[in-house]
Design a protein that fits this description.
CATH topology of one domain: Rossmann fold
Strand content: 15-25%
CATH architecture of one domain: 3-Layer(aba) Sandwich
Helix content: 25-40%
Strand order of the largest sheet: 4-3-2-1-5-8-9-10
Number of strands: 18
Number of helices: 13
InterPro entries: FTHF_cligase, FTHF_cligase-like_sf, MTHFSD_RRM, NagB/RpiA_transferase-like, Nucleotide-bd_a/b_plait_sf, RBD_domain_sf, RRM_dom
Shape: globular
Protein name: Methenyltetrahydrofolate synthase domain-containing protein
GO cellular component, one term: cytoplasm
CATH superfamily of one domain: NagB/RpiA/CoA transferase-like
Structural class: alpha+beta
Distance between the termini: 67 Å
Pfam families: 5-FTHF_cyc-lig (PF01812), RRM_1 (PF00076)
Largest sheet: 8 strands, mixed
GO molecular function, one term: RNA binding
Radius of gyration: 25 Å
CATH class of one domain: Alpha Beta
Length: about 400
């Protein structure tokens, strides 16, 4: 027992979370927003705990700091802004990118800085930073549900903090020695069995509470990037919700890294049956024949799906515009990305000299789905512009 939270032997991660959440509520330590269950819990004394970060050398030396958007970390965000440090905050659930960079207005007062540190301020005073941003994070501050003095950390169970850190590793924003700090109430410091930790779990170097500063001297290695096949939270569904994650997966696949998802393993096991192999060979042969017959003139390249000629001239086909394509990118790279994100068109009109391409889909619903899937896609260092072609945006009631 530590800090009033009693844990039974053999407790699971979820047991630990429930015990901490229950104790914070029952003891009157929980603070807005409530209930604290299923959140990184805010607690009475969180601002006091946050202020102690100003006593850490790693904070004072840091120029660029990543702080999670959770309510109990508001005081750290304010301290970073007051110290004129670059403050990066992950976008909620990574829906629109990886980070927001908080940019207070020129001559901001103390009150404006206080607003900038809140969730509302993050929306009003920020600019997005994507995978191609040149972030170099000197200090990482994360929220926790529970943490041990050894540095083992348990979050709320969705895996976003672990994923954000792994993404920062992949984009070169953090190094092996980049320190990680967490802010918790004393009652959240508990004994956590090391066997509960997975390879992708983030550990912490400093724990700040309202009464203590704990240096963990944790020797367990931090994640060295996303372990795609082990991350239980990762699925095609999640990739569909987080465009920047799709883009990172595509980028790592191009470098030869194994990016097979956990939910793909069963599919791969079934893909080696004779019927599946024969189907794959037939599909490859069809694609090869289509490529041989495709017209390629100068910088224009058009490839059609020969299996759907009946849709030609039907009036149903909807075109998607893809722009901001770098000169170094080839049509094969775009085609690979389209297959990867399940957005293969009936026809692809490649106009490399104009840094654009047009994709034809069978109807407006399929085209809009492709736009959603490809949002945030990065090729050759550029985030592509993907939208319905201008003459298609008001079309579709047929």
């Amino acid at each position: 027992m530590e800090g009033g939270v009693r844990l039974r032997a053999g407790a699971s991660k979820w047991d630990v979370r429930e015990k901490v959440w229950d104790y914070l509520e029952a003891s009157g330590l929980a603070d807005f927003p409530r209930p604290v269950h299923r959140r990184i819990p805010n607690f009475k004394g969180s601002y006091q705990a946050c202020c102690s970060i100003k006593e850490l050398d790693v904070f004072n030396r840091a120029r660029e700091i990543k702080v999670d958007p959770d309510k109990p970390l508001e005081g750290v965000r304010l301290a970073a802004l007051q110290a004129r440090k670059t403050l990066l905050v992950p976008t909620p659930r990574l829906r629109t990118g990886l980070f927001n960079k908080i940019v207070p207005p020129s001559g901001a007062t103390k009150e404006i800085l206080r607003i900038c540190a809140t969730s509302q301020g993050i929306k009003e005073y920020s600019v997005p930073v994507g995978l191609d941003g040149k972030a170099r994070v000197d200090l990482v501050v994360v929220g926790s549900v529970a943490v041990s003095e050894k540095g083992w950390r348990i979050g709320k169970g969705e895996g976003y903090a672990d994923m954000e850190y792994a993404m920062m590793v992949s984009m070169g924003a953090v190094q092996e020695d980049t320190p990680v700090v967490t802010i918790v109430h004393d009652c959240q410091v508990v004994d956590i069995a090391e066997e509960l930790l997975d390879d992708h779990d983030l550990t912490v170097d400093y724990i700040l509470t309202p009464t203590r500063t704990i240096e963990t001297n944790c020797k367990r290695p931090k994640p060295q990037g996303i372990i795609w096949h082990k991350a239980r939270a990762l699925s095609y569904e999640m990739l569909g919700k987080i465009p920047i994650l799709k883009s990172l997966r595509h980028r790592e696949k191009q470098t030869g890294k194994d990016v097979t998802l956990l939910d793909e393993h069963s599919d791969l096991a079934n893909a080696n049956t004779p019927a599946a192999l024969n189907e794959k060979a037939t599909a490859e042969n069809t694609r090869a024949q289509a490529a041989m017959g495709a017209a390629q003139i100068g910088q224009h390249y058009v490839e059609s799906d020969s299996l759907s000629p009946r849709l030609e001239g039907s009036g149903m086909i909807t075109t998607v515009y893809v722009g901001n394509i770098p000169p170094s990118v080839r049509v094969s790279e775009l085609k690979c990305a389209l297959r990867e994100f399940h957005a293969t068109p009936l026809r692809l009109n490649w106009q490399g000299a104009q840094h654009r391409a047009f994709l034809d889909y069978k109807d407006k619903a399929t085209a809009e789905s492709a736009v959603s899937s490809l949002k945030g896609l990065s090729l050759g260092g550029n985030t592509l512009r993907v939208e319905l072609a201008k003459n298609q945006r008001n079309k579709g009631q047929v």
